[in-house]
Amino acid sequence: MKPELGEIDQAHGGAAVCGIVVDDVTVTYRNGTTALRDVSFAIPTGTITALVGINGSGKSTLFKAIMGFLRAGKGSISILGRSVRQALKETLVAYVPQAEEVDWNFPVLVEDVVMMGRYGHMNMLRIPRRRDHEAVAAALDRVNMTEFAKRQIGELSGGQKKRVFLARALAQDAQVILLDEPFTGVDVKTEEAIIKLLKGLRDEGRVMLVSTHNLGSVPQFCDRTVLLKHTVLASGPTSEVFTEENLQRTFGGVLRHFVLPGERGPGGQPGESVTVISDDERPFVVYGEDGSEAPPKPKKKPAPKRRTRSGSK
Ligand SMILES: Nc1ncnc2c1ncn2[C@@H]1O[C@H](COP(=O)(O)OP(=O)(O)OP(=O)(O)O)[C@@H](O)[C@H]1O
């Protein structure tokens, strides 16, 4: 399957603005596990894309391939029109890790973690200059963590740690940001703050690929969605891809799926029913009679087929 470049061209008035293009990529680990097979999708700049799939579907493997930690046995990846290697050299890509991937006992201050984002901008001796300190201060300010600059990173809450790693990506001035489960273990307020920040970064023309099990938040802030199950089941605008049918194909029996019948109206006519689809975190909620089609919600973009709203945690 070829990436939908035509679609991207249309979305950008004819300009081929490609953030990430993954073309027919297969990745096999040394033990013979093929984690990704013939994976193809394309993401324009200035967008937030959700990467959705069950545990073990290959999301982390895809991130590692985009970051150049894993070589694709077949296919190619291009980042802002460059090879992965060139993009890394230009420090264009940043990664915001899952909490479990980090050794929180390592004694390092918050400001030092953020300064790591500047390494690619420094010379071999890595002596920060004024502009590096300024970039760190600005990044901490943007994620609202200035007052924690001198704290040990291990002494922060889960949501605060996430914001520090986002600040590291900002200090790096990364144009492509990969976020691995940014909402796991964070409260609703922090989640909203992170979403607001990501939207701001999108408006600056950056590219964000966000792996998440937080299905309810996907239609809320992700323009595009890639559904992954070792290969791409569907990709494109969230309004087209994020359908109940596609989610069932992606998650199979793993999804929790409830249909709540609507209350009867005054004349006994059927009321609006609610379909709740949940992986393990915030559910995706579909409103409509018998869980079916609901009136389209008027929006600037083409009207989505379903009216959706994220549920609470
Ligand atoms: N280092 C490795 N060596 C061999 N197989 C691996 C390795 N890392 C991952 N795999 C396998 O590759 C497949 C994809 O794993 P991956 O970690 O990419 O999934 P994931 O979608 O990120 O999962 P999760 O949602 O649990 O983080 C799984 O079958 C996994 O067991």
Automatic annotation (TrEMBL):
Domain ABC transporter intervals: 20-255
Composition bias type Basic residues, residue spans: 297-313
InterPro entries linked: AAA+_ATPase, ABC_transporter-like_ATP-bd, ABC_transporter-like_CS, Metal_Ion_Import_ABC, P-loop_NTPase
Residue segments, region Disordered: 261-280, 285-313
Gene Ontology MF terms in the entry: ATP binding
Keywords, ordered alphabetically: ATP-binding, Ion transport, Nucleotide-binding, Transport, Zinc, Zinc transport
Entries under Pfam families matching the protein: ABC_tran
Family stated for the protein in its record: Belongs to the ABC transporter superfamily.
Protein name: Manganese/iron ABC transporter ATP-binding protein
Native species: Methyloligella solikamskensis
